Input
Amino acid sequence: MELLDFLTSSAELSSGSGPEDHVVLSSRVRLARNVKGVPFPGRAKKKVQQETCDTIKPLVSAASAMRGGFTAGMGDLKALHKQLLVERHLISREHAAKTGGSALILNKDETLSVMVNEEDHIRMQALMPGMQIKQVWQKIDRFDTSLEKKIDYGYDASYGYLTACPTNLGTGIRVSAMLHLPGLVLTDQVNQIVQAVTKLGHAVRGLYGEGTEALGHIFQVSNQMTLGESEADIIERIHKVVLQIIEHETNARANLQQSKSKELYNHVGRAYGVLSNAHIVSSKESMNQLSLIRLGVKLGMFEDLEVSVVDELFLVAQPAHLQQFAGEKLSGDERDVHRANLLRDRLSGVKGVQLSE
Amino acid sequence: MTEIVNGQMKKIDLCEECAKEKGVTDPQGFALADLLLGLGASSEMDSAGTELECPTCGFTQADFKKTGRLGCSVCYTVFAEPLEGMLKQMHKGVQHIGKVPKALRAKLDITKQRDHLNEQLQKAIETENYEEAARLRDQLKELEVVSASGKEE
Output
């Protein structure tokens, strides 16, 4: 089956909402596992890598959780399609660069994905919308348990699950939540929050992980320590931190509405004005303006705009989705025009609520 | 790009050239090894004296410095000594507490983990390293909880 026939449409994907989705865009847990006695992918010879991939791939796709899912070798996927998967957070940028000897397995609704031979032999993740950190952990934990019956994992009584990078050693777990924090950014509080969260030993990153910018006021919070602490405790700590950030963000928004409503409406109104009228819009600009519109929608500033429409635009305004939508390869300049057309088309005519004096 | 340095968020606008120079556009170029070694492991890796090499995969200390990653599971035994300090800085503890593959669970682990922790605890008390001792005691407590919940299953 072709990847495109398989993938959920952007509209459908964005229509799913989760708890606390005014702040939490998605929750994710990934586990790193390796096959006992086989060199890690970075060290394995091409032939060994291929063999490992050929062994793991059918075992993973045969798992009951993967019924009706999608399996492909990374060498068989088109570059554009790999980019689509990156934009959906289903594979890493590193994995997109892989070819033969690596694979991807997705379950039917794209909530489970497994990368074979990324940095580790197996990188599995569960991803769900909104604040569902605990549910996501249960899902991936069950899946991992089902796999361990078929795959002999590299495991040590002291070091736990052995991983290629010592930063993942032990539980091999990375728990993360994608947070939309325009209120904290607009009220200049986000630095304080980032500092506090970092002090607690968690990492804060931009939209696409390591080394990326916090475009669209979107921040990723995740654990850094994986050894010496149980999965349950790691989950619990991140859960608590995220709940606190939700509270701060909600307060910041309420404050803006109360004491700076003119400025707030001005920001949101201008963002709407730009995106519903512009003819050239860069990826960065669309993210930042859509972020403000999303804030406006969640504060009830638009009469007939659903948040799912904004979330869908967040997704389809990205380079690979845009080219997929256009049905052709586009240069950077062409993309900016296509993006502007798409945004105008979807956003013009939306009624805004007037600020009462 | 936004950099978070010591908890301070720094925003830098880069042109494409500079971004390339800084290695921003190349995710592989993100000097992970430097980052890890910056945590104080560099000196320990050096002072280990003779160049260690993994007999299974041929991985050397130099390779580790370059990539920040290990070659295979045996490497963890080979490089155990120089790794120890680094792991201590990086993680909450150096003893895994958490999920154990079912097949192994019955056999060994909890007892072994407990013995290992107790041993370390004794050492910490002898050297009057109370901070470490307190941490180990917490880990032991946590282990009891884990083992109790395991029995309920």
Residues 231-259 of chain A form the longest helix (29 residues).
